[in-house]
Design goal:
single chain; mainly beta; 12-stranded antiparallel sheet; two-stranded antiparallel ribbon; elongated
Amino acid sequence: MIFSWAQVKKGGEDATAIVRWSPVFNFQFQYHNDFSSRAGFFTGVNIRNVGFIFDDPTTVNTRYKARVYDLGVPVALKLGNMRGLCLFGGYEIEFPFNYKEKRFVNEVKEEKNTSWFSSKVPSYYQSFFFGVQTAFGAQLKFKYYMTNFFNKNYSADDGAGNVVKPYANIDANVLYISLSFQVLKGAKAYHKDK
């Protein structure tokens, strides 16, 4: 489950960000390797639904909802009790493959766009994260995206024959808190005595 928001500025003005909850279609496979009973690392492959909601500070009563599905590869160091409570922190690179944006005016949906491998967003995101993991695989994590959510160089025709860059003046860095569970963590097959 991901609870996300963003630090958003549009045209230099701060936008009001609303927390977005995305509990579904977030999958992860993690490979853990423990160096000792007190240190280890993990990597893996993740598919995530990451986005944010914001009220446009330059237009009255206009709200945007934007999200991507992405494929991520994390690398993290773990410290603590490898069979109990431990802390972790690391870096992840993520490749967006599906983008969706909705625009609401006076709480009525006016526009919706969905596209695969969209050039409206960067080809990859870089992020760092830290969190805590319990003995049976529950993880509470905080994540910050260093890459701007939108591709500021994206250009399109505005319908009147003019080329515009709709994201050129938007700065948006996503943050989130997530709660996840490793389904098989804690089974004897995963904890062999050395």
